[in-house]
Design goal:
258 residues; globular; mainly alpha; single chain
């Protein structure tokens, strides 16, 4: 039995990336089953999968006393690559390919205003929360504000500005909380805000910005709306990464002085 386990472990280690894909596939499958049976589809399977992933990352860090979560376990080292920037950015860009450009153009001025307002309001609210919790320098406020935009914009902004690892971690946490909340609450409020057509989905994606949260929430509302909301959410991420370390940072520095 011990020899069999050693053989299995050796195969898993040598094919750690495939092992990572298999593990994530199992988690996602179980999450969708749980969402269907216990939440009647009101909580999307993606939200449950993210929650399980966060718990497993914590457990992996405790068990290995490392800083990479499950990726510190040898046979699951492929999770570090699978969850890295390369595949993450590929997934984000790929979400926009299912949309029709003519539908985006139909949003007109309201879509553009929603996109710009969504980015700057998120940065502003995040910066105010950071200030309230004692972060009074422009670098930290901008980084945490970026996290309030998305958990991608926060680290990009913090890295560009030289923020501490603690502040960058807080920005990621803020973005993850926002993503899960948007994912869970979208199906509940969809009927109240008229989220039932491509135009409203485009505007919604521009306001919320978190691609994973918008995609998961719209999938639980109406799967046909996912590409539209995801496209403007992707634009949101790009704009946030551009204006965060530049326009937003200089604005905040002019206000707080440091």
């Amino acid at each position: 039995m011990n020899e069999l386990w050693q053989i299995v472990q050796s195969v898993l280690v040598k094919n750690s990336l495939l092992t990572a894909f298999a593990l994530v596939g199992i988690i996602v499958g179980l999450s969708y089953i749980a969402a269907h049976r216990f939440a009647s589809g009101r909580v999307h399977g993606s939200a449950i999968a993210i929650l399980i992933g966060l718990i497993l990352a914590y457990v992996g860090g405790v068990v290995t006393d490392g800083d990479k979560g499950l990726a510190d376990i040898e046979c699951l080292a492929g999770i570090g690559l699978m969850g890295g920037a390369m595949l993450r950015d590929l997934a984000i860009v790929a979400t926009a390919f299912g949309v029709r450009l003519d539908e985006f153009l139909k949003t007109g001025l309201s879509g553009i205003v929603a996109l710009i307002a969504g980015v700057f309001v998120s940065f502003g609210l995040g910066a105010l929360v950071a200030f309230a919790f004692g972060y009074r320098d422009a670098v930290s406020m901008t980084t945490i504000g970026g996290g309030a935009a998305t958990y991608i914009v926060g680290p990009v902004t913090g890295t560009a500005l030289g923020a501490s690892s603690e502040v960058i971690a807080l920005s990621v946490a803020a973005g993850l909380v926002k993503s899960v909340l948007v994912m869970c609450l979208t199906p509940i409020v969809a009927s109240w805000i008229g989220l039932n057509n491509p135009r409203s989905a485009l505007i919604f994606g521009g306001l919320m910005g978190t691609t994973s949260g918008v995609a998961g929430g719209l999938a639980a509302t109406d799967e046909k709306l996912v590409p539209y909301g995801a496209m403007t959410a992707t634009f949101y991420t790009g704009i946030g990464c551009l204006v965060g370390p530049s326009v937003v940072f200089f604005l905040l520095r002019s206000v707080v002085g440091t």
